[in-house]
């Protein structure tokens, strides 16, 4: 009998803790919609007590995708955090409160300076309080893999008796090795089954020693029924267990695990690429499943073998992870049917015929300038169109630019549009990009520091498209920006403005415009 493994995706919580991976509300909702298409069981949408922006993002995700997917968010064992989680997820059909509290001596002594019993009591009280709000509560024993086993169990026993419905065992610092971690899960599973067989045992691993996937799979073999994972393995430090690796391991080695998930594997690559696009954080080329070379065969003996039979060097086909579906690209030669199909596939309503014509016009303008239009471009086109004018008026658009470069005084002249206002200026710099970014910084009048600039070439299609990813710092926060164009100077300007607009949107979310009346 094949056992169902529950998949919780924490890209929007643990993944978003990574510097540069900060997303705005619209981007988080877009990514959550893709997670829904991927058919994850639970989305961990954020840490709502951490900021007004994160609270709003979790709330919006609960409202817009929480009809079929369970939504959770993280809280410390603190009443205010639990209230923030409850308030932000309560609109979802199946909300789950997630509480974390350390169980290792290091956490108890160094972080809390309390006795072990006192820390355990904090956890029990937090669960009891959460249960007054919702029936489903997950408790995470932070740093479980470095905890003294009998104290870990005593804590788990106490929080289950207090009402916890899921116990999540994290290898918080990626210290575990597969046989030890598997053995710990086997023992916990045995005791939990005796105490209350309905409580779900879950694991959450980090990749500090490159063992996150191996530890997660070992836990599954030893009885874990739920895994916490992220797309591309994005997460604190060296990251979390990568969703795509666990899913394909369970699928390809079904004969070894006898487990299945609900995940639609053909959506894996699309989800990975969307995350890369939104965060600007590239996947290493040799990354399993989602790296550019994951299905590329370069040496003669391998190519010869593959031509004779794919199975010689392929344990799974690229189509299984959605490689084919990535090639559906709209252009200025696409008609209304293709565009409508793309808009609806992203979950937008197209029943307003007049609005659809406006959107189609905007699409043709974009396709003329951008040549190839992907799903994420369509998503932005529609959401930008539907965003209230008040927020659009805060965003900057590139109106025109001219860059003259030489080895003496590279100079850039730029016109930006902000609402109905046109801002124009010139500046010199150490090079053409420095001049370009100097004039944009002068025009917007904010203190923005460029932290990272990366340019790469996208070889698909006959136009050589330059892709620019940047990271900027504004008011102590790091924002990423990205853009693609056949003109790399234009792509550089657009990526910089994309990052700046992210910061502007973030500021608008933190301090919403007061409602009049
Ligand atoms: C393993 C993980 O990934 S856990 C999740 C990590 N995610 C985050 O940290 C989310 C982003 N964090 C934040 O926005 C902020 O840190 C906040 C809002 C959570 C807290 O901010 P602040 O109140 O300013 O506290 P700060 O972060 O400086 O310190 C953490 C405090 O929480 C306490 N704390 C830490 N973990 C827990 C916990 N699980 N339960 C209860 N208290 C905790 C610490 O002991 C410390 O309290 P102290 O001031 O009494 O020493
Ligand atoms: C909140 C918990 C599950 C966590 O992220 C960790 O311990 O790494």
TrEMBL record:
Residue ranges crossing the lipid bilayer per the database entry: none
Annotated pathway: Amino-acid biosynthesis; L-leucine biosynthesis; L-leucine from 3-methyl-2-oxobutanoate: step 1/4
Region listing for Regulatory domain, in residue ranges: 397-517
PANTHER family given in the database record: 2-ISOPROPYLMALATE SYNTHASE 1, CHLOROPLASTIC-RELATED, HOMOCITRATE SYNTHASE-RELATED
Keywords on record: Acyltransferase, Amino-acid biosynthesis, Branched-chain amino acid biosynthesis, Cytoplasm, Leucine biosynthesis, Manganese, Metal-binding, Transferase
Stored PROSITE patterns: AIPM_HOMOCIT_SYNTH_1 (PS00815), AIPM_HOMOCIT_SYNTH_2 (PS00816), PYR_CT (PS50991)
Protein name: 2-isopropylmalate synthase
Enzyme class, broadest EC rank: transferase
Native organism: Brevibacillus invocatus
A GO cellular component annotation in the UniProt record: cytoplasm
UniProt lineage: Bacteria, Bacillati, Bacillota, Bacilli, Bacillales
Binding annotation for Mn(2+): 14, 204, 206, 240
